[in-house]
C-alpha cells in the first residue's frame, strides 16, 4: 500500500475513533450532571452517580470533564432532561428509547423521524416499558477471560447473572451493586470493556424475531 494512502487510512480511522470518544465523553458528562442535579454530588449517597462515575473511570473519561459536569449539576446550570420514549419496531417488537437532552421538543421530533424512517411506530407511555428493567451491564470479551473465573468473581460480588452475547459475556447487576461488581472484576484483573458497560434497559423476556 503506498505510504500516502496508508497515512490517509490511519488518519480516517483515528478521526472516527476520536469522534466516538467525544460522543461518549459528552454522553457521560450529561449523565453525571443530571445525576448530581437529582441526587447530589456525593457518590456514597447517590447510587446513580456512583455507577456513572465507575463507567466513566472504565471508559477513561478525562477527570476535568467529570469535574466540570459535577459543578454544572451542583450549580443548577445543568438543563438536561432524561426523556424516555416507547415504540414498536418490525414484527411488533417493543423497545424503549432513552434521551438526555436540553431541548425536549427537538429530541421528540428527531425520535419520531427516526421511527418513521425505520418503519417503527410510536407507542403510548407505559405500553412497552413494563417489559423492561434498568440494570447494570458489564461487558467482558469471551476470549480474554476464563468463564469459571468470571462467574465466580461476578456472582460472589453480587451480580445477578452472567450471560453470553455474541463475542461478549454480559454481567448483569442491580443498579445499586453495579459499582461493587465492576470494582471486584477489575481487582481480579478481568478485562472489562468500560465504554460498553453501564446502566441499560434490558428486556424481562427475550424472543427471536
From TrEMBL:
<dbReference type="InterPro" id="IPR049083">
    <property type="entry name" value="TACO1_YebC_N"/>
</dbReference>
<dbReference type="Pfam" id="PF20772">
    <property type="entry name" value="TACO1_YebC_N"/>
</dbReference>
<comment type="similarity">
    <text>Belongs to the TACO1 family.</text>
</comment>
<dbReference type="GO" id="GO:0009507">
    <property type="term" value="C:chloroplast"/>
</dbReference>
<dbReference type="InterPro" id="IPR048300">
    <property type="entry name" value="TACO1_YebC-like_2nd/3rd_dom"/>
</dbReference>
<feature type="domain" description="TACO1/YebC-like N-terminal">
    <location>
        <begin position="6"/>
        <end position="75"/>
    </location>
</feature>
<feature type="domain" description="TACO1/YebC-like second and third">
    <location>
        <begin position="80"/>
        <end position="209"/>
    </location>
</feature>
<dbReference type="Pfam" id="PF01709">
    <property type="entry name" value="Transcrip_reg"/>
</dbReference>
<dbReference type="InterPro" id="IPR029072">
    <property type="entry name" value="YebC-like"/>
</dbReference>
<protein>
    <recommendedName>
        <fullName>YebC/PmpR family DNA-binding transcriptional regulator</fullName>
    </recommendedName>
</protein>
<dbReference type="InterPro" id="IPR026564">
    <property type="entry name" value="Transcrip_reg_TACO1-like_dom3"/>
</dbReference>
<dbReference type="InterPro" id="IPR002876">
    <property type="entry name" value="Transcrip_reg_TACO1-like"/>
</dbReference>
<dbReference type="InterPro" id="IPR017856">
    <property type="entry name" value="Integrase-like_N"/>
</dbReference>
Amino acid at each position: 500500500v503506498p505510504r500516502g494512502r496508508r497515512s490517509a487510512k490511519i488518519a480516517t480511522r483515528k478521526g472516527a475513533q476520536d469522534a466516538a470518544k467525544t460522543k461518549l465523553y459528552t454522553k457521560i458528562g450529561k449523565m453525571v450532571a443530571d445525576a448530581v442535579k437529582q441526587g447530589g454530588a456525593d457518590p456514597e449517597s447517590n447510587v446513580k452517580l456512583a455507577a456513572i462515575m465507575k463507567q466513566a473511570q472504565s471508559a477513561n473519561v478525562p477527570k476535568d470533564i467529570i469535574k466540570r459536569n459535577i459543578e454544572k449539576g451542583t450549580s443548577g446550570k445543568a438543563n438536561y432532561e432524561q426523556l424516555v420514549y416507547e415504540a414498536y419496531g418490525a414484527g411488533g417488537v417493543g423497545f424503549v428509547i432513552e434521551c438526555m437532552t436540553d431541548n425536549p421538543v427537538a429530541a421528540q421530533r428527531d425520535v419520531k423521524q427516526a421511527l418513521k424512517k425505520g418503519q417503527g411506530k410510536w407507542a403510548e407511555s407505559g405500553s412497552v416499558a413494563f417489559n423492561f428493567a434498568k440494570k447494570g451491564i458489564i461487558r467482558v470479551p469471551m476470549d480474554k477471560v476464563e468463564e469459571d473465573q468470571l462467574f465466580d468473581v461476578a456472582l460472589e460480588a453480587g451480580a445477578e447473572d452472567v450471560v453470553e452475547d455474541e463475542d461478549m459475556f454480559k454481567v448483569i447487576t442491580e443498579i445499586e451493586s453495579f459499582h461493587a461488581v465492576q470494582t471486584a472484576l477489575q481487582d481480579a484483573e478481568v478485562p472489562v470493556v468500560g465504554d460498553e458497560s453501564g446502566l441499560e434497559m434490558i428486556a424481562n423476556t427475550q424472543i427471536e424475531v
